[in-house]
Amino acid sequence: MSEKTTGQPALPSRVGKVQKKNPASPAGLPAEDAYRGIGASRGIAIGTSYAFEKEQYDHEAKTLEPEEIDGEIERFVVALHRSEKELKKIERVTTRKLGKGYANLFEAQIMLLHDPVLTESISGRIREEQKTAALVIDEEFGRYLEQFRNSDDQYFQERACDFRDIKERIIRNLHIRKLHSWIPEGTIVISEHLSPADVILLSRSNVKGFVTDTGGQTSHISLICKSLNIPMVVGLGNFSQTVESGKQIIIDGTTGTVVINPSEKTIEHYNRKRDDELQSEADASLTAEQPAYTRCGVRISFYSNIDFKEELAAIKTTGSEGVGLFRTENLFIDGTKVPRESEQLNYYREMAETIAPMPLVVRLFDIGGDKLLYSPVREPNPNLGWRGIRILIDVPEILENQLRAVLRANTHGNIHILLPMITSIEQIRFIKERLEKLCNQITDETGLACEKPFVGAMIEVPAAVEIIEEITRCVDFVSIGTNDLTQYTIAVDRNNVIVQDLFDKFHPAIIRQLYRVISTAQKNRCPASICGDMASDRLTLPFLIGCGLRKFSVVSADIAKLKKMVSSITLAETELLAGECLELASAEKIKSRLENFLATL
Known about the structure:
This protein is 45% helix and 14% strand. It is α/β, with parallel strands linked by helices. It has three domains: 30-54 and 181-280, Phosphohistidine domain (Glucose Oxidase, domain 1, 3-Layer(bba) Sandwich); 66-174, PtsI, HPr-binding domain (Enzyme I, Chain A, domain 2, Orthogonal Bundle), CATH 1.10.274; 288-569, TIM Barrel (Alpha-Beta Barrel).
């Protein structure tokens, strides 16, 4: 084993490990190094590294002369115009490549450039404090960035990325520097961090893959890479500081593995693996639109997790049976402004009509993780604070606007709602009472009967598992969020590089909780599904079926391969597998047992 050193205080030995696969390589050839990060977009890429670094600017802390102030404000205004022009170009490219949904990310940034509170504050400070525009911009955006970065909530971490991108864009345009977007064709990009705009523009150079020091599996750049079918590995710490351009590199976006200076044997291995995966996907796509049955005839259903309505186009072609999770947080404009009832109504109605009679499960706004929206108070531990259902209950205008929009849009009766971060029966009853009240209100307003949606609860904290008996008697369905459930159960932030290897979905506590939730729901005739990462994992799918699960909500692109796997297993063997795993006392043994089962298929 060897460690890469950076001059920084040492991290625990498990972090940033590099395993030298061929230390005895031929003379003159560098040794092979393998790194492990987080697989953010599946697929294998083999190519040459390109170190992508954004230009940094020093902010001169000088005092402007009175006669320089108007010119400095004019420079700021010009930089805003240049930034808007760039973002509109990126928006057009995104619309062409991915559709309007992802282009909305850049619409929100353009709106921020026109925010009078922000722009007038910056102009006012330049005039009053006689500071340079770059310094004031850095300070103003810095205040927002600090709040976003200190949030443990993935949604607000995404907002930090957006704000950082806008800040850097405006400052670069102050210096009238050209946007760096063209790189050598067919390379694998290595960077400390990338914004959605970077990924969109760099993809024009037929990039083979992306590797970043930061990021998570559900970040915007990850979702974009999945849509573009570009492999991506994130969360590699200081990796970008150790690899320069021109190195031969392999990345595996499924396992999160990155190999530098691979041997011929390693290249052959990954070439075979890539070919096998492509062939497997091609075979699976042939039967993707057919219903999924186990070898013994048990029906298994697959639904889609989506973020934008534009993703609905892929629903039928991938064999999905509807939307099992629609994350509504992306409807927030620039991350802070709550969407109006009318905006939500049009959005939900269009989605419901597009896929009717298939179901559309709308998760209510899972916002929070810090007080950024509605309170000046900064929480010491945002992830255990004011978030999810707690905000919805405490801020009636957010909740009622969303519930009214859902009720009015549910003309086909195919919209269901899902409640985030449930920890008590009282929370569920509160929402159901509000639904009843609003339904009566809408009926009185329109004279038409109001179609009430099914109400489901997210099971994503240990408290919900402990009261699963009561929950499954109180709701119409439950959906298990394995990512948060694992995080809260093992007390590990999966986006924290220092402890990310401790985030283990095979932990016995997680395995046993899943069985408890599924079996209790089954007993109480409450439909259960799973919408976290484990739903897409071929290792865990047989175990979950063996526990009694029959509904899975996953990324649409994964459905074909999962259906193919289902057709090769029997219920009896999965039940035996589940029983064995529940008796095992370590994550390592559970994972090994699941791997052995997969090898027999």
